[in-house]
Write a structure and sequence with these properties.
Blueprint: E1 7-16, E2 26-31, E3 38-39, E4 42-44, H1 51-63, E5 68-73, E6 78-81, E7 95-105, E8 120-126, H2 140-152
Parallel strand pairs: 1-7
Antiparallel strand pairs: 1-4, 2-3, 2-8, 5-7, 6-7
């Protein structure tokens, strides 16, 4: 990560069901602006909030619930650059630096993608061993790195 480039602070969630740890399937959501592009919920960290506060706010905004408990967090920030042509609306940022959390849905949590500003049109829970086949975009190497870490630590 170059010091002269600006990266937008961002938070991302890898969500497991309320049946975790018996069930270790992971939540993924299909973007509503790109067909067959799946990802984890994520979003920017506002200047006046912590990464943890942003996590709960973003989950509520994107999947209609923030009823989760934090299981673990990735120990460092991970950065990526936007693909050529897609960063125009994110100026002056060239990419994002992300803090990843592994969270479990609480028993009574209800996912609702019909939020004020919907970002996703569909979601599902998939096995840890098959989740990578759903990711074809530029975030795939980061997803692979984070999932590998949570598996190594015994969480997934």
């Amino acid at each position: 990560m170059s010091k002269d480039k600006l990266y937008r602070p961002n938070v991302a969630a890898i969500i497991v069901s309320s049946d975790y740890p018996q069930d270790r399937e992971i939540f993924i959501a299909e973007r509503n602006d790109m067909q067959d592009v799946w990802q984890f919920p994520q979003g920017g960290i506002d200047a006046d909030e912590s990464a943890k506060e942003a996590l709960f706010r973003e989950l509520k905004e994107e999947i209609g619930t923030n009823k989760v408990e934090i299981i673990a967090k990735y120990p460092e920030w991970i950065s990526y650059e936007f693909p050529e042509g897609s960063a125009k609306k994110m100026k002056p940022f060239v990419g994002q630096k992300q803090k990843y959390y592994l969270v479990r849905l609480k028993k009574k949590a209800k996912i609702n993608l019909d939020t004020k500003h919907p970002e996703f049109m569909n979601y599902k829970f998939v096995s840890v061993d098959k989740v990578m086949k759903y990711f074809t975009h530029f975030k795939k190497p980061i997803y692979k790195q984070v999932i590998k870490y949570f598996k190594k630590e015994g969480y997934l």
